[in-house]
Amino acid sequence: MTDFGLLDDLSRWQAGFERRLRAAYDSAGHPPAAVERRVEEVRAAVPRLTVAELTGEAGEVVGCVAVSLDEDEPGGSLTGRIVDLWIDPEHAGQGYGEAARTWAEDRCAAAGATRLTVQLTETEPLFAHYAVRGQTRLRHLAAPAAPAADSAPPRDSAPAAGTGPAPRTRPALTARPMTDDEYGPWLVAGKDEYVADIVRSGSLTPEEARIKSDRDFADLLPAGLATPDHAVVVLEAAGAPIGTLWLKHHHLPGVTFGFSLEIDERFRGQGYGHASMAVAESGTLAAGDSVLMFNVFGGNTVAMGLYDVSGYRAVLEHRYTPLPRETPGAA
Predict the structure, then answer these.
(1) Domain that holds residue 173
(2) Beta-strand pair 115-120/131-140
């Protein structure tokens, strides 16, 4: 029999949790300073966590599980999160992991959560039946160049040295800053595409996705094209626009985050995706960062394929399950 005891003093658990978190992010390829930033972000949420120790039949502590409840989804619905689930290796394979997962599901459902999420740094069979909400893909680039005066990717289609595999032939591609006249239509299209990605992943309804899209774009680009550290550019081939790229430099220490890369439908399948990745990598290095990171939603097989062949490995996987959980054998 497994017992769960809620902890009032989280200090001992937190020390072990932060060690595991650092090791996981380090193994996933985050730069050291980015690892510390990630840990700081999680540490800030510790006061909101509910943490329980698992004890076995002999009363020995065999593991722990920590969950949070957040009212950050559109419409005010609650989302549960498994922040930590650790089983002592000496007790692995004895059903304690399944018991801890079930405890987290039941506790969050009882509190009114409609879904439960978990963030994985490596494959975990315990959550194999959870749906993939998205992945974070990452690639280490060459040593960063001196920061440029303009944070937009340079008008140079050649890949930066050491940026990795490339197709045998790459179409010539240039990038220029987006104009104010282009920004409005791009913003509308970007919000619509974001909604479509969220709905395709299965994590939110269309109505919830629309609320989230409006909120996230407003938070990320409060000053539009003038928002610091953001580069929204138009990709051109032979002087004609063929797509857009949106980067945020210094998203984490040493890390540029790619929020979107869109190639117009009529130009797809012609190698512009690969050429665009080279532009993004050059822009990352020019801004002084050495790592480029993208998120890809579950179900977006085209983007996943592009990141695969471009050398971007999945370092975080975000999974979820609806709540309450289904009872085995239920119709």
Answers:
(1) 138-314
(2) unpaired
